[in-house]
Each structure stands twice: as C-alpha cells, then as structure tokens.
Write a structure and sequence with these properties.
Number of domains of chain A: 2
Strand order of the largest sheet of chain A: 1-3-2
Largest interface: A-B, 58 and 58 residues
Number of helices of chain A: 7
Radius of gyration of chain A: 21 Å
CATH architecture of the largest domain in chain A: Orthogonal Bundle
Oligomer: homodimer
Number of strands of chain A: 3
Chain lengths: ~170, ~170
DNA sequence: CTCTTATTTCTGTTAATACTGAAATAAGAG
DNA sequence: CTCTTATTTCAGTATTAACAGAAATAAGAG
C-alpha cells in the first residue's frame, strides 16, 4: 500500500477532526474516510500502515464502523485476510448514520422524556418545568415522525425531494 | 435555591449525557438543561450549588452557552449579579443550535472539500477518489442549500411544514 | 476612592478516553 | 493435527479534555 497523496491526507485528517466534534472517535472517522475514498477493499494491516496507528486500534475501530453499518468485510480470492470497504453512496451512507444515531441517542432521549413527563406529577416539579419537558418531548416526536416518513423514501426519491423542496422554498423568498 | 426534584435531576443528567455523545461538554449541557426547565433566571452561584460543580466551571460553561446563542444574561432589579436564562422556544432553540453547528463544522468541511477537489488534479490522486470527494461535496452542498432555504421560514411555518410533510409522506406508504 | 462582591483567568489535578504492544485466541493451509 | 498467519482481547500507558480552587481582575455601592 503506497502512501496517501497530500489531498487524500488532508481529507482523512479533516474527517477525523470532524468526527471528534460529533462525538466520533478520531481513528474511527479516519479509517472511514480512508475506506470511503479508496476503490479497492483494504486489509487491516494496510490501514495500520497508511494511518500509522496500532493494529488493535484499527481492529476495534473497524468493529465500530461495522456496528454503525457503514463498513463491510469482504473476502478476496486467495487471501485469507479480511478486507474492508465503506459504503459508497453518500446519501445512503448518511441515512444509515442518521438512523443509527437516532436509535442510539434520540430514542433513549424520547424514552427518558416520556418517563420524566409521566413521573412529573407527584414529584413536586413546577408546572412550568413540566411544560418545558412536554414541549421538548413534542419537538422530538414531531421531528422524528417526519424523519421516519422521509426515511421511507428510496434514496433517489429523497434526493429529488430535497432538491424540489429547495426550489419550492426559494419561490417564497 | 432549593434542590432539584428527582425528575428534574433525571432530565438534567440525561441531557448532560446526551451532550457528550454529540461532542458537547457535559457541564455545558447540564447547565443548559437546568436553565431550560427553570422559569426564573439563575445566577452562577445558584447553578454551582444545584449541579455541584466549581464556580469556574459554571462561568466557562455559561460563556460557551452564550457563544452558542441559546443562553442570555439578564439583570434583575437591585441585584448586581448576572442572571442567566435559556431560550425557551424549543424549535427556535434547535434552529439556533443547528445554524451554529453548520457554521462551526459543516462550512469548514465544505471548504476543505472544495480545496481537496480543486487540488486533486496534479496531486496524483486516483480518479476514483476524486470522484468520491466530489460526491461528498455535492451531498453537503445539496443538503445545506435545502437547509438554508428551510431555515428562512419563520418557526411556525417551519413546524407546519414539518407536520404537513409528515402527513404528505404518509400518503405514499 | 475604597471596600465589597461578582466574575474571569490561570494553574494544577483528576478523570475519561484513546491508544499501544503483547498475549491469547481463532481460523485457514497443508 | 500442526503450523502459520490473522484477529481479538487485555492490561498498561499516554493523551486529552474536564474540572476544581486559588489568584487576579472587574464592577458596583457607598
């Protein structure tokens, strides 16, 4: 595996940095970036070399990416090593990421809010505070309902919808 | 300032936890949660006591929340201490947060991608990789364009649009 | 101006997380 | 089954970010 070009390097580093800002491990994001721009699947050893991180770190990060569902193992003819490739369709990829974040973070938050709202009576909480929790719950329910629906569209339709929505909204302003 | 009720505590802790998952400091998120559910503006000392964190921590966290634009200082008659209150309209609040995250993270990413794409020729980068970067850039431009337009709608219209969009999409499925 | 009180800044500590390298395990070839 | 090679697990280390407490600064009252 030859070294990354300067541009590739720049992208991988930036993506890693972005990851950290969104609560994603730097190495995980870097590996994802690398796999995303690389045409052929890479094995773990190659990833180590290119990124200069420990084998175990790569192993764990790849697991994480597989948990996210945006990286898959593939096997190449006559090579017993695992090779890894990223999902390539950008829209699809972000849909998967979004769905996963919803599952991991939004759903539990909605659950917590529901519990809070239902326990709020008999807890001595101010009515004002109760109402704020209700507002918040309502916000999450409304937006996630919308998301659920929008997410049923196949990617192409979704992209079209976004572009049409954009144009449509422009006629207002 | 009296202690938080159990429910309030549960919410504040959860919100803090959520913060960390999205790259937001735990204390920052906790203070935000506290101010959000509290009707009257609080001073820094009160926040310290309720959350049990150091004064300096509160001070810095409040600065951060003010930078985000979701917490404001208010002054009360006959009290020289600063008091703080959170934006209360949930939709508006998330709009502000989203706008700020775009400004801080998405815009720089778009810039980086543009640079990468334009420098990709003469860098020896594979055509395949170049294309992936272009795809990614296209994705960000399409979605942020849409976002920009959607964000021009006043909150009420936006909420309506979300609810209508939800209903509309349901007719498909 | 001076005193008091609020706020911020700074420095050191702690805690959390990321990471490494070695050891253990697993998996495939022969 | 045995040997080799790939992968994972684990225990320790390092890095980073969060936080506390003290010191410095600022701001308001009188």
């Amino acid at each position: 595996m030859k070294d990354l070009t300067e541009v590739a390097q720049k992208f991988v580093l930036h993506w890693g940095e972005m990851g950290t800002r969104w609560g994603i491990n730097r190495t995980v994001a870097q590996i994802h970036a690398l796999l995303f721009i690389t045409e052929s699947p890479l094995d773990a050893e190659e990833i180590c070399e290119v990124l200069g991180v420990a084998r175990s770190n790569v192993s764990n990060s790849l697991k994480e990416l597989q948990n996210w569902g945006i990286v898959k193992v593939v096997h190449l003819q006559g090579d017993r090593r695992d090779h890894f490739e990223s999902m390539k369709d950008v829209y699809e990829m972000f849909r998967v990421i979004l769905a996963e974040r919803k599952r991991r973070e939004i759903d539990p938050t909605v659950l917590t809010l529901k519990t809070c709202v239902s326990e709020a009576d008999g807890d001595g909480m101010e009515n004002y505070s109760k109402q704020r929790l209700k507002d918040l719950l309502d916000f999450f329910e409304t937006t996630t309902n919308f998301y659920e629906q929008a997410n049923r569209l196949p990617t192409k339709a979704a992209v079209k919808a976004i572009k049409m929505g954009d144009k449509f909204l422009k006629t207002f302003s």
